[in-house]
């Protein structure tokens, strides 16, 4: 520690001028050398450093400006994309709703058409059954009538003479014609 205090004490005491040499005392020479170097750097480097800092500042400002322009362009594109997405989502929802309603409408139409077709088939079936019943009844009537007529003719032929036979046949033919008109 004594060397440290001696070096500060020796700062106040300068050796005589005229000799040149190296001072190896680091504590005594360093602050002076540093202040000289800093003074020279500040004096001569001030303009260069100022230019370097101004250039750097301009590059940073340009980069910020470009970034802001790119950011605003990206925000515009994002908003356009969001608007297109909303539009597409709305259209998709409309297609979905329209599709569902069309499907439901087609389903109802198909059900109604099927019911109408079944109703028509039921009507045709009933008409066919009624027609066949009437036909069967008419066939049975005709057979019964034929058999009755044949039986009556057989009885009449055995019991009647020719003149009576002819009158009876004429009367029966007239009755048969009248019955046929009634059934038709």
From TrEMBL:
Pfam families xrefs: ATP-synt_B
Residue ranges of coiled coil: 64-98
Main location: membrane
Keyword Oxidoreductase annotated: no
Membrane spanning stretches: 32-49
UniProt keyword list: ATP synthesis, CF(0), Chloroplast, Coiled coil, Hydrogen ion transport, Ion transport, Membrane, Plastid, Thylakoid, Transmembrane, Transmembrane helix, Transport
A GO molecular function held by the record: proton-transporting ATP synthase activity, rotational mechanism
Cross-referenced PANTHER family: ATP SYNTHASE SUBUNIT B, CHLOROPLASTIC (PTHR34264:SF3)
Quaternary context: F-type ATPases have 2 components, F(1) - the catalytic core - and F(0) - the membrane proton channel. F(1) has five subunits: alpha(3), beta(3), gamma(1), delta(1), epsilon(1). F(0) has four main subunits: a(1), b(1), b'(1) and c(10-14). The alpha and beta chains form an alternating ring which encloses part of the gamma chain. F(1) is attached to F(0) by a central stalk formed by the gamma and epsilon chains, while a peripheral stalk is formed by the delta, b and b' chains.
Entries under HAMAP family matching the protein: ATP_synth_b_bprime
Function: Component of the F(0) channel, it forms part of the peripheral stalk, linking F(1) to F(0).
General remark: In plastids the F-type ATPase is also known as CF(1)CF(0).
Family recorded in the similarity comment: Belongs to the ATPase B chain family.
Protein name: ATP synthase subunit b, chloroplastic
Source species of the chain: Cuphea hyssopifolia
